[in-house]
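REQUEST ID: PR-0412
SUBMITTED BY: lab tech R.K.
PRIORITY: routine
TASK: structure prediction, single protein chain
INPUT:
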Amino acid sequence: MRRMTRPSGRTTLGIAAGVVALAAVIFVLSAVSGGDPSTSGDSGAAQQTVESRLTSAEIRLATGDTTRAVAIAQEILATDPGNVRAQAIVSKAGRGSAPAPSAPTSPGSSPSDEPNSENPPPQVDDEAFSKEIEDIGALLPKAFEGYSMSEPVVMGGDADVSADPVSPDAPAYRVAWAVHDRQSNDGAESFIAKTSKVVYPKASSQKIVVDGAPAYFGTDGRELATVVYRRGRYVFEVVVVAKTQGDPSKLQPLAVLAAKEFVDTLDQ
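STATUS: complete
OUTPUT:
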């Protein structure tokens, strides 16, 4: 469990200077160790920021958040029209390669996945998370052992950050965390029911709990696995990308461990 002290008088986490500083250090070190020696620090950091945003968009596209993926890609294309990765994201989204977040059913899902059914999404009573948090990005983890963190990306009511393994022996190709403000408890439950359980329909029969919150673990059956849960109006989502296609259910321990890195306790 990660804890964040909330200033009195407002429901806010403030500006996460530590998160930004840590990400900046990681990107500078990356540029120095593996970048072009002729590239300046400023341009190298800028390129890393673009790469981070492209990675975020690609993961969003793969996990069904087509609208946000395209929005990120189009912003990049506005300043770099020839960016091949951004063009590919827009092209794939136009062909409908990513599942639509609002799709009510999918192979492997069932009516019980719908909200307000006999088996609704987990109920979590967190009063602090029923209100708007000004700096949603501060809920993201700052570090994850064995992985190099990218720079957090915040767009309105969504924030995400990804990490690549430091060791080639790591079980995952990439780990990504995202927090979504769905405006209400019902909105958060609907996201889990209509997006997470549709994109990742192969659910685990094992009971998953993350820092006291009932969570859902599922996979796409190929290479993606997720752990997702809600606190109040906020959805906390981890997506793990396997190195090879096969049985992503083996990534469950790593996904649960990564989910516990979220800041999900606010001090009054």
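NOTES: The chain has six helices and eleven strands.
REVIEWED BY: pending
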